[in-house]
Amino acid sequence: MFVNPEIPLDALPSTDAVEWHALDPRFVRCRQARSVVRTLIVFAIVGIVHAVGANVPKLAAVGWVFPWLWALGVVRLCWGLFWPVVDVPRRGYAVRDKDILYKAGVFWRSVTAVPYNRVQHAETGNVPMERRFGLARLTVFTAGTASGDLRIEGLDETTAERLRIFVVGKVRGEDLEATMVDAEDAARIVSA
User: Fold this and answer.
1) pLDDT of res. 78
2) How far is residue 52's CA from residue 67's CA, in Å, rounded to a whole number?
3) Angle 176-191/157-172 helices, nearest 10 degrees?
4) Are the CB atoms for 115 and 54 separated by under 8 Å?
5) What is the pLDDT of residue 149?
6) Which regions in the chain score pLDDT beneath 50?
7) What 3-state class would DSSP assign to 102?
8) For residues 56 and 175, what is the distance between their CA atoms, to the nearest angstrom?
9) DSSP-based three-state secondary structure for 124
10) Three-state secondary structure along 20-61?
């Protein structure tokens, strides 16, 4: 006989008592630098379009558009320098016995929980800008998805590798002590 008893809401686990770990403080500067580079690329494109447009008679008549594009670029640059200072401190992760949590959001906040028994694999990676700042991201994949279900950016390279080894160890059912010894070995390899 199938039985599906109701669980009282008071019995559900809460994320209020979780000890959240902050992302690396260098992540703010990394996001600011990424924004500056993107804005400079936009400025270069607008500059080229402006130079070409000034030499074409029909486009020269709409030259009033270009000052607005420059102004929007300056606004984008200011926003790109300001927003990471607000956004990054409101992100965090927590590693628990049965799952890994990630929180993000300033206005629209979300908490993502991925139980270890659903994880297929985990990987770390970084792009050139993150490598410049010594940062990496952890991506955790669950069954049936092509993209990662959990992606934590802004981790120190060593921390990201230790988390990856820990998550993979939990998936394999290894004990915590053996997994952390492997993680410390991997951290030495990454930092070397």
Assistant:
1) 92
2) 15
3) 150
4) no
5) 84
6) 190-192
7) strand
8) 70
9) strand
10) CEECCCHHHHHHHHHHHHHHHHHHHHHHHHHHHHHHCHHHHC
pLDDT for 69: 72
The contacts of residue 87 (CB under 8 Å, 6+ apart) are 31, 106
Can you tell me the distance from the alpha carbon of 144 to that of 4, in angstroms, rounded to the nearest whole number?
Answer: 26
Task: Map residue 148 onto helix, strand or coil.
Answer: coil
Query: What region does 173 belong to: left with phi over 0, alpha with psi -120 to 50, or beta?
Result: left
Number of H helices, E strands in the chain: 6, 7
- Rounded (10°) angle between helices 65-87 and 26-55: 170
Q: Whole-model pTM? A: 0.77
Amino acid at 12: L
Burial classification of residue 14, based on how many CB atoms lie within 10 Å of its CB (0-12 exposed, 13-18 middle, 19 or more buried): exposed
Which among 106, 111, 116, 57 has a CA at the least distance from the CA of 82?
106
Assigned token pair, 172 = 């394999």
- Who's near 61: CB < 8 A, 6+ residues apart? none
Residue 168 to residue 178: CA distance in whole angstroms: 12
Residue 17, CA distances (Å) to 11, 39, 60 in order: 14, 40, 62
Beta-carbon contacts of 157 under 8 Å, excluding residues fewer than 6 positions away, are: 124, 126, 134, 135, 136, 190, 191
Cα distance between residue 70 and residue 89, in whole Å: 30
